[in-house]
Amino acid sequence: MRNGNQTYANHRRMHPLFHYVFSLLALVLLVMSIIELVESLQSGNGLIPSFLFLLISIIVIIVFVLLRSYPLKAQDRAIRAEENLRHYVLTQKLLDSRLTIGQIAALRFASDEEFPALCKKAAAEQWSPDAIKKSIKSWRGDGYRI
């Protein structure tokens, strides 16, 4: 799938350990810590350990979110630079400043032949990233972004 056979139907990538295991464990930890705190409040015993358990679960959730958001921001910057360079090579102009990072990330799947025209249409008509991806005729795979 990552060797050029990527399409709209199969382009989304999930990292099972992060997206399924870690997210599920973090959610279970949060729910269990809330249950433990409620039980401690009702019984009047062990409030400090229960509160610490909840605090640790909140910290784990924050780390979970940050672990995903920081690399995505770095990837978005790289994609913007790569696609700006590609657009410049193909048209001798930089990308339209009206294009959002979401649109640019979607446009990276377009072949060189359709890329400049899709950039113009996406900027002028403010297409959503999903609409951009669905309009691509000749898909160019990207196996690096998760």
Structure explained in plain terms:
- With 146 residues, the chain is mostly helical.
- The protein has one domain (16-135).
- It has helices at 16-43, 47-91, 101-107, 115-125, 129-135.
- Helix 1 packs antiparallel against helix 2, helix 2 (47-91) crosses helix 3 (101-107) and helix 3 runs parallel beside helix 5 (129-135).
- The model has no long low-confidence stretch (mean pLDDT 90).
- This is ABC transporter permease.
- The chain crosses the membrane at residues 17-35, 47-67.
Strand runs, count? 0
- Roughly what percent helix? 55-70%
Could you give the order of the helices and strands? HHHHH
Instruction: Look at the helices and sheets and give the structural class.
Output: mainly alpha
Could you give a short account of the major beta sheet? none
Portion of residues in beta strands equals under 5%
Give the termini separation: 14 Å
Count of folded domains: 1
Ranges where pLDDT stays below 50 over 5 or more residues in a row are: none
Shape: elongated
